[in-house]
Predict the structure.
Amino acid sequence: MKVTFFSHSTCMLKVHEKYLLIDPFLSENPIFRNENVFKLFKKIDYILLTHAHYDHVCDVELLTRKYNNILVISNYEISNYFNKKGIKTCGINYGSFISFPFGKLKYIWAAHSSVFNDGTYGGNPGGFLLHTDEGNIYISGDTSVIYEMNLIPTFGKLKLSILPIGGKYTMDVEEAIIASDFLKSEKILGVHYDTFEDIRIDKEQAQKRFFKKGKELILLEKGKTICI
């Protein structure tokens, strides 16, 4: 399995030749100013949306017009919102695992908010627990640390957790360390930091704090990929 980090919370997972794009925030992202976002992707099969805030959904319509047969997977309200715009969606909610060609997916609790820019309610914010025969990944979405994270490793050991670390709107570094303890996760990909001034972090200090707890905090440059 390959994980490519673009910026903010936007990542691409490659699993069994299927490409899963998470929370696309590119065309309005200051880090991608004046760049052609279509050059970033050869293929997109699925888009996973954790919640409705613009910095997680702003490029859904742009990308689904460009790439054929994308399936958008999110909670019922977000899926219904985009389905009314003619986009192919799969609405889920907190509940069981659901099988897809790339593996099985479970929508997971998050402590945050969820509303579209036009004021439309975005349903319950969440994250995703992805189980595949190439390993299991937890994508938390925007959240504070919550005690329910203790339940996640009971479903299976994690190879990687993708956690926000920028603070203010989500967990900061210290809370992400606590979350990684709950998750029994030793390898963490940090997201949702440095995009804007109010979520800037000291990256070197953040990695040192994780290291002192016996964990690895991975901070990727734009467009870089790791294999897990």
Q: What stands out?
A: The chain has one domain: 2-227. The CA atoms of residues 1 and 15 lie 5 Å apart. The chain has a mean pLDDT of 97. The two ends are 6 Å apart (CA to CA).
